[in-house]
Every structure is written in C-alpha cells, then in structure tokens.
Amino acid sequence: MTPAPGPAPALVIDCRGRRCPLPILDLARRIAEVPIGSVAAVDADDAAARYDVPAWARMRSHAYLGETAAPDGTPRYAVRRDH
Amino acid sequence: MPAYLDAASGSPLHPVALAAMNAARDDGWADPGRLHGAGRRARLLLDAARESMAESLGARADEISFTGSGTQALHLAVLGSVASARGPLDPRRTIVHSAVEHSAVLHAVAAHVAAGGHAVEIGVDSLARVDAMAVLAAAQAPGAAAVALQAANHEVGTTQPLASVAAGLEGSGVSLVVDATQTIGHGAAPEHWSVLAADARSWSGPAGVGILAVRSGARWSSPLPGDDYEYGRSPGVPDIPQIVAAAASLRAVQATQDAVARRHRALIDRIRAAVAATVPDVEVLGDPLDRLPHLVTFSCLYVDGEELLRILDARGYAVSSGSSCAASTLVPSHVLAAMGALTSGNVRISLPLDIADEQVEEFLAVLPGAVATVRQALGAAGL
Known about the structure:
The complex is a heterodimer of chains A (about 80) and B (about 375).
Chain A: E1 11-14, H1 22-30, E2 39-43, H2 49-59, E3 63-69, E4 75-80
Parallel strand pairs in A: 1-2
Antiparallel strand pairs in A: 2-4, 3-4
Chain B: E1 3-4, H1 15-27, H2 37-57, E2 64-67, H3 70-83, E3 94-98, H4 103-114, E4 118-122, H5 132-140, E5 144-150, H6 162-169, E6 175-179, E7 195-199, E8 210-214, H7 240-255, H8 257-278, E9 282-285, E10 295-300, H9 305-314, E11 317-318, H10 334-339, E12 346-350, H11 357-378
Parallel strand pairs in B: 1-11, 3-4, 3-5, 5-6, 6-7
Antiparallel strand pairs in B: 2-8, 7-8, 9-10, 10-12
C-alpha cells in the first residue's frame, strides 16, 4: 500500500461490488469529469482492480498514484488525469 | 473448423502412449516389489520406462521417481529440498523463488513457511522474467537452502535464466529446484538442476504421471512418511501402464520435437502479430522470443475474460484465461499481477501437437468479433 497517493481526489467513483472489468470501465467513463492534472479515485473491492487500475492508467497514459483506503476500509486507487 | 487451443491444460493421449498403455496392461498390473513371475514382469516394464525417462530427461535411472501427478512432483521437489532443514537447529530454512512460479510451487512454499520455514520471493519484470542476479543475491544470504525456479512460465511462456542461476549456485550448497512441468516435450530438457519436476501432460502423456528427479548427492529428503517404492521418494505402488505410456509418449514427442517446435514457434509469432494488429486495446504478453514455442497470452482492455472464453467456446475454440471476473475464481492470476499486466480480458492459447495452420487462421478471423461483442455488451465502445 502506497502511503502518500498525492493530492486529494477531485472525484471518487464507488465501484463496491462491481467485478472486473467494470471498475476500469467506470473510471474510463468518468475520468473526463476531473480537470487535467486532477485526481480521480476508484473505491473497489474486486481483487483485480489492484492490478487493473494501474494497467489501465499505463495503457491510457494517465498516472497511477497508488492505493489508500476509503473511510470504510475499501481499497481506493488514485489516478491523475494527464490529458 | 473448431480448434482445441488449451494444450497446456491437457491434451488427448498421444497414439503411441495409448498403444503402450494397452500393451502394458497385460504385464504391468502386478506389484513390482514382489519376487514372483508376475511381479518380475511388472518390474521389467517399470525399469524399462525408468531407463527411457532418464535418457529423455538427461538423468540417471536411479535419479528418477514417478509420482501421481506433476503437481505432486512439484510439491515433493520443493518440500523435499528443505525437509532436512526443518529441525530447529538447522539454519538452512529459506526457499528463494520467483513471484511467477506455478501455484503448486507457491502452495508448497506456503506449507514450508507455515511449518516454521522461510521464503524469499523475487519479483519479475514486465515480461515475467526474474533477474538472475537478484535470485543469486537472495540465495547467498545466510539460511538459504534452495532456489525454486521454473524453466518457463506456464501462463505467458517466458523462459527463466536457469543457466545463469545454475552457474551462480555452483559450489554454494544451495539446491536448484527446477519446475520443468511446462517445458519437457517442447524443447531441450534443462541440464543443470539438483531436483527437477516434470508432468507427463506437457508431452501428451497421461495426467496421472509426474516425474521427480533428484540428482545423486543432492540435498533432498522425503517430506512424507517412509515407503519402499520409487527409491523412497514417492509412496505407493506405481501405476505401471500409465508410467509406460508416459515414457513412450515422451520418446515419440521428442523424436519430432524440433520440427514441431519450429512450426509452433512460427504459428505463435503469427498469432502475436495478428492479435496486436486486429484487436484494439490489447497487450500481447510475455517475451516474444525467449519463450515456450507453443504458448501465448494476451489481455484485452474492457473485456470480461470468462465471457470471452464462453463466446469462443460456442464458436468451437477452447482457450483458457487468467482473469477472475467470474465467481468461480476470486483471485486474478498472480503471474499477470506480478508482471503489472492487465488481469481482466485475459486469454491464453497453447497449441496442440497436431494444430493445423487453417485452424489458427480461422481462430484469428473469429477473435476480433468475439472481443467486440463482449465490449459492446459492456458498453465499452469508444472508451
């Protein structure tokens, strides 16, 4: 778990209960809601999201910032919109 | 034309294996440990199969033991290499292994750790290859008993730097446990090992035969209760007809191995290029050159891997997946995760011996539409 995932997210997408590949689909649909340079985060309990969110960021040329936890303990994955 | 493209999971028995098995049923049913005529006839068959297997694997006959499966051979290979180090006073308790070993190896390592042993996992690069220097550095640390390393990865085909690791370990007293369960029958058998595990499934032999090979003088002792069969390395009366079939199948497969591997290699090159060119947002994984000849894996963005498998199966194409989007598997492939690859939308193709070029071409023609269908159902178009 990365301790410091960068600035607070401008958008948090709730993907609890959504199985792969739905969390990265949700992220792809909504990343444009944040300004370039801002952070969108995905709260996802699906085990694949831990690997698929960074892979998505790499394939789509955004920056994966790391993993923290939502207030309820659900893993939260942060991505900076780069374009 | 349908095609079975999951040979790494299992293949129909080689015709030579089937004939050998049927012949051995008549003479190979008795306990080979008995001194009567029936026992001696069974013993002759078993000895001949062992000699043949030893020659195929580049080992001595007394280094070869037959096990009940490749998985069991891996369990015994790993646990036996540290079994003698389980006493509390023995400082050698650490197994060094890559992050992309077969789950049978990882489960054996977990059992060792649960019993008070230690393990050091070495990460891999984006091609799934471990760094030989990192392995050797860990193996030089005090307490290292064994290095467990696959000859090639079972999910993405990438070969591991076995020769470099073996050279670095020479004279160190640290055992090299080689998982050759994907390799034998597709290329040269690894030469340098202390303990080696093989699986007859990788050369179109029966599923119920694994091979545990232990070099003379290697540090290995059985982690199981004592037994007289198979040099005390694998308990129980061996299934001689199945073992005869496994040895005969490997002989037959090795006789044409180079030609088949060349053909497979070219077909996989073709699949790698065609998938990358015709499927949008796909990553073809593993080393394009230093790899198993017959296997390739790719991951498609915005695709449910299990749904793609279902559609391909309905069209007559059997493939496998390291994805975990279905309820049947909750954890995504640890290999894809360790590589930093996309775990969803994953497809593994492994070619059977008799694959026809036309089958591959027809699969390649069907695949882009199948991927598009899954994406459309998910509403992923244009993302």
